[in-house]
Write a sequence for this structure.
């Protein structure tokens, strides 16, 4: 199951041409839900499967601070598609040596 992650979302009303705002203070729950649907996020097992490594390898990299990680609202580590691409690029540079 993939989760979503808030990553600099901008809310715009379709009928009103105005400067976009980052958060709707009048309805914070609605704006939170809209923002959360913008970016797909993967947990550690999903990320490990996409990278072709064991889950403990990902946890070890996080512990050693070799990779940066974001946390969701439950304080679970999650990775976006761009994070996974960065990790793949990092691994490829290590393999070339």
């Amino acid at each position: 199951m993939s989760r979503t992650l808030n990553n600099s979302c901008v809310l715009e009303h379709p009928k009103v041409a105005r400067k976009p705002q980052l958060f709707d203070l009048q309805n914070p729950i609605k704006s939170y839900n809209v923002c959360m649907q913008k970016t797909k996020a993967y947990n550690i097992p999903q990320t490990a499967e996409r990278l072709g490594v064991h889950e403990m390898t990902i946890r070890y990299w996080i512990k050693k601070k070799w990779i940066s990680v974001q946390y969701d609202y439950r304080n679970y580590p999650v990775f976006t598609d761009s994070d996974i691409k960065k990790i793949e690029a990092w691994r490829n540079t290590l393999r070339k040596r």
In short: Residues 81-96 form the longest helix (16 residues). The chain is about 45% helix and 15% strand.
